[in-house]
Write a structure and sequence with these properties.
disordered C terminus
């Protein structure tokens, strides 16, 4: 047998297999279409009957349901009921009764428990959710909790089915399951309970009032806040003093969601006294829901909390209050605590105050006030903001930022000032940057200052090279060990440097009067 013969035989077998697969697919599709057409004809007989059920009063449903029980084609009737379940977002009581009386709910519950194929279990869970009968809640919860033996897709479908069930009878088993749920499942059950709205308030209030440190009590407080139940206010206030940290935190968040102004006093009382930092953070966030002068004052004080997340939450709470918080935050920029100044600057930046300052500087509107606030921002440590504003298109804004950096003595921004001194298109800005670098005593700026001596452009009759030379002369105090001896600069063959180094010197801005020594005038060479 030649190689060609073997190839032809293999090709023929593959071709035959392909043709056979296509024929089987066509045959199976035709069979399914035939079954579907037959079922559609059979369903037509029962559509009118099911439509009558939707219009009958509850007292008249019993005869109709009894008549349905005598029918033989339950498969077609079930298909019609399934269409009704899929076609409505609500779950009418008549549909629940029909599924329950005919035993269809029990049938799908049994299929979810015992079916061998995961597709059948998933279909049963999906349909139980669409029907929305509370009898399905226990088996759906069992399916969700079977993490070791159940398929992940089936468990997810069961969770979605639980969320669809709006039957009031489902509240009690859901609350019982919340009490024993694992950590990963408790938030999902709490979310499902939230969908039931006011129906969950009374049982959850009773559960929250129970003594002990049950972990589910925190989720009960969370649900009460989500549904915004006013009658839960007293128990939530008492929850602020609970022994469980998580319960106190969830109660604070819930009180903020309720929006009841009576909660302000209680929240302020616990804002700085609660021993747990993350609880104080939740209280600060809850206070941010209220617009009250006392709230703003206490939140500003909370900016000095030793826990960083409390300070951050306080800033976020002030941001939620809005424009009325700008004044206290501006005052906080003068606080002696640098951490409070930084947090206040962050809050003001998020409220858009820097953009307002930029507009005031560009339009020369209340310029002294804008410059004073910008210097405060620079002192508070808003490094990214200042670095970004050094690249602003407006020359007035860039110049104001350089001035603010110099007044705030921000030596950490020396690299950005060096870049501005070297590459800015405006001679005025380059000269201002050199002067700021000289005032800061930035040693790293010496090469840029020496290069600037060759700048031929002028500013108001004064060459920028003169500013560069003067800044070089101010970058070292005599005898400094960190820089080269000043006599080496005097020998530089550039007259502005020699002149600046030979001029009488004043102490560095950061040097104290007791340690500063006057410079001696050296002869030029």
């Amino acid at each position: 047998m030649t190689t060609l013969t073997i190839i032809l035989i293999v090709a023929s077998v593959m071709l035959g297999a392909g043709v056979l697969t296509i024929l089987v697919w066509f045959g199976y599709t035709s069979y399914l279409n035939l079954i579907e057409r037959r079922l559609a004809r059979r369903k037509g007989v029962y559509r009118e009957l099911v439509a009558e059920l939707a219009t009958r009063e509850r007292a008249l449903l019993e005869p109709e349901i009894h008549r349905i029980r005598t029918l033989l084609d339950l498969e077609a009737l079930e298909a019609v009921l399934e269409e009704q379940a899929r076609g409505t977002s609500e779950r009418p009581q008549w549909l629940l009764d029909v599924y329950d009386r005919l035993g269809l709910v029990d049938r799908y519950i049994e299929r979810l428990r015992t079916a061998r194929q995961w597709r059948e279990r998933a279909f049963a869970a999906e349909l139980l959710g669409r029907v929305g009968n509370a009898k399905a809640v226990p088996v759906l919860l069992e399916t969700v909790q079977a993490t070791r033996i159940e398929d992940g897709d089936v468990r997810e479908i069961a969770l979605r089915a639980l969320a669809r069930i709006a039957d009031p009878r489902a509240v009690e088993p859901l609350i019982e399951s919340l009490k024993s749920a694992e950590l990963w499942l408790a938030p999902r059950i709490a979310d499902i309970l939230t969908r039931h709205g006011p129906l969950v308030v009374d049982p959850l209030v009773a559960f929250l009032e129970q003594p002990g440190r049950h972990p589910a009590r925190a989720w009960a407080a969370n649900v009460l806040g989500e549904v915004r139940a006013p009658r839960a206010f007293p128990v939530l206030v008492r929850g602020l003093g609970d022994l469980d940290d998580e319960v106190r935190a969830k109660c604070a968040t819930a009180l903020g969601r309720l929006g009841d102004r009576r909660a302000i006093t209680y929240l302020l009382e616990h804002l700085l006294s609660d021993p747990a930092p993350f609880v104080r953070a939740r209280i600060a966030g809850a206070l941010g829901q209220f617009d009250d002068p006392e709230v703003i004052d206490r939140l500003v004080r909370a900016l000095g909390d030793p826990a960083w997340w409390v300070r951050m939450r306080s800033v976020e709470a002030l941001e939620q209050i809005g424009a009325r918080a700008e004044g206290p935050l501006l005052v906080a920029l003068d606080d002696p605590d640098p951490e409070i100044r930084i947090r206040a600057a962050v809050g003001l930046e998020r409220l858009g105050v820097p953009a307002t300052l930029v507009g005031m500087i560009e339009s020369a509107e209340r310029l002294p006030e804008a410059m004073e606030t910008l210097v405060k921002f620079a002192s508070a440590g808003a490094r990214e903001l200042l670095a970004e504003l050094l690249l602003h298109p407006s020359l007035e804004v860039r110049t104001a930022v350089v001035t603010a950096i110099r007044h705030a003595a921000r030596r950490d921004l020396a690299p950005e000032l060096i870049e501005a001194a070297r590459g800015d298109a405006a001679p005025v800005l380059r000269a201002a940057a050199f002067e700021a670098l000289g005032g800061l005593g930035a040693l790293k700026a010496v090469p840029a200052a020496l290069d600037g001596l060759t700048d031929p452009k002028t500013r108001s009759g004064r060459p920028p090279s003169a500013s560069s030379g003067a800044s070089v002369g101010r970058m070292w105090c005599p005898g400094s060990e960190s820089g080269p001896p000043i006599r080496r600069l005097v020998c530089v063959p550039r007259r502005p440097v020699r002149s600046a180094c030979s001029a009488p010197r004043t102490p560095h801005p950061t040097s104290s009067a007791s340690t500063a020594t006057p410079s001696r005038t050296l002869p030029t060479t």
